[in-house]
Design brief:
Structural class: mainly alpha
Number of domains: 1
Strand content: under 5%
CATH architecture: 3-Layer(aba) Sandwich
CATH topology: Rossmann fold
Radius of gyration: 18 Å
Oligomer: single chain
CATH class: Alpha Beta
Length: about 250
């Protein structure tokens, strides 16, 4: 959905655009992944987050109802990034293919079915995006859209900086826009996951940073699949004011 991208933007903002500071560690170690438990190496557990000085940035993919209550009690700032369902599905499918820690996605047709019925890790996309959308009116949540970030990265980065109460000069802002572009991040070993999880992620199957575009779903969905998906989507999204763009 653009989580890694947003993490890099947040770190760049917090480090005032200092690229060297942002290369201090890989994404995974700069922003501990709350619910992902790996026995080895132990430095990748929750202890990593606990040892960090404030302000800490923590990553999670949890649906809103599973977020630990302490996040609400502490009035934490939360940045949520959502991506249109079809592109999310395509990206997720390829991520499953290259990540051996994830269940085998099966065929494209099978994975579409799993996605639509919510039988994927972290549950239904529909419930996920709607749940956080609803929560944003009650908590300090900045709700972002992947498509907006692609359309106008500078505007969205300014939005994030304002949310983090950071004043950035035009020069720093432009530097962040450049260094968090897909092309630059794809070549950055501290952000592209080529350094973490060797033997777990197989970038020769599909690179972690694959395309980073909007409407790639058109290369995968058949006409029949698309019609069926749209019909189901209408039903599932009929009870929300949330609107996505599947193309720009």
């Amino acid at each position: 959905s653009g989580t890694t991208w947003t993490q890099e933007i947040v770190d760049m903002i917090q480090q005032n655009g200092d690229t060297e500071k942002c290369k201090r560690e890989t994404t995974y170690k700069r922003h501990p992944f709350l619910e992902w438990f790996i026995p080895e190496p132990p430095s990748m557990r929750l202890e990593l987050a606990e040892a960090m000085p404030s302000p800490r940035t923590i990553k999670t993919h949890l649906p809103v109802q599973l977020l630990p209550p302490s996040f609400w009690e502490q009035n934490c700032k939360i940045i949520y990034v959502a991506r249109n369902a079809k592109d999310n599905l395509v990206s997720y499918y390829h991520f499953h293919r290259m990540n051996k820690a994830m269940p085998d996605p099966g065929t494209w047709d099978e994975f579409v079915e799993k996605f639509v019925t919510g039988k994927v890790l972290w549950g239904s996309w529909y419930d996920h995006v709607k749940g956080w959308w609803k929560a944003k009116d009650k908590h300090r949540i900045l709700y972002l859209f992947y498509e907006d970030m692609k359309e106008n990265p500078k505007r969205e980065i300014q939005k994030i900086a304002k949310f983090l109460e950071k004043d950035l000069s035009e020069e720093v802002l432009n530097k962040i826009v450049h260094n968090t572009s897909f092309e630059v991040m794809k070549e950055n070993p501290m952000a592209n996951y080529t350094r973490d999880f060797q033997g777990v992620m197989d970038h020769s199957v599909s690179p972690f940073m694959r395309k980073g575009t909007v409407a790639d779903w058109k290369n995968y969905f058949t006409v029949a699949q698309n019609e069926k998906f749209d019909e189901d989507y209408k039903k599932k999204m009929s009870d929300t004011s949330l609107v996505f763009r599947a193309e720009l």
